[in-house]
Amino acid sequence: MSEGRQGATLAATLRPRLRFAAAWVIGGAAALFVANLLSYWAIPVVVVLLALCWLGLFVDGLVRSWRWRAAGMPALLPTFIPIFALPFAAFLASHALYWSHVAPSWWRLRSERSAFDRAIVGGPVPGGVAGIERSGSRIAFPTVMAATGTWAAIVHDPTDRMAAARGWNGGPVAADIARVFGNHTIWCQRLDSHWFHCQFG
Could you tell me which residues come within 8 angstroms of residue 84 by beta carbon, excluding any fewer than 6 positions away? Predict the structure, then answer.
């Protein structure tokens, strides 16, 4: 096979596999985002489906590389495509899971801001909130209470110190806010002004 024909064959073979790998990375992150919004138990299902898709791409790459080798074309790119996709998938999946926790709190605060503002000064608890936790000037509105003991809340912090909680993926949490509501503060994300979404465990 001529060098030009080999190059054309290589490009024609790699192009759809690259597109599939890109769709797997981006679509997988989107699927994890939606699954985590809907139910924690949807995550294992999505992970298994994504793993099977990756395995299919990897096996396809092995078969294609073997056929090219038999034809005198020593190219391993089809095998490496799914391997190269893994770090990109991990990066996007981490961010998708992070923001899938934050998005519901951001939307609830945005759509019911007046109710939260009234609750700060003694008004009724906004809908969908389990109660109110107070710690000095800080107020937490728990929105998720997991059976494992972890919980999430929309937190009003006029001091803005909750912004120092960066425990996602093992980041640091400042000592003065580590147990501000009696639980271990894991991480916080600013929603608006002095409002934060926080995870506690």
Answer: 21
- Cα(68)–Cα(1) distance, integer angstroms: 11
Q: With the CA atoms of 132, 133, 139 and 141 taken in that order, what torsion angle do they form, in degrees rounded to the nearest 10?
A: -50
Largest Cα separation within the chain, whole Å, is: 80
Q: What does pTM read for this prediction? A: 0.80
Tokens at 60, concatenated: 């396809």
- In the chain, the amino acid numbered 7 is G
CA–CA dist 82, 86 (Å, integer): 7
Q: Which amino acid is present at 146?
A: A
Mean pLDDT by 10 residues, the chain (201 residues): 57 83 96 88 92 94 78 69 93 94 94 94 88 93 86 96 86 88 92 95 88
Residue whose tokens read 């003991």: 149
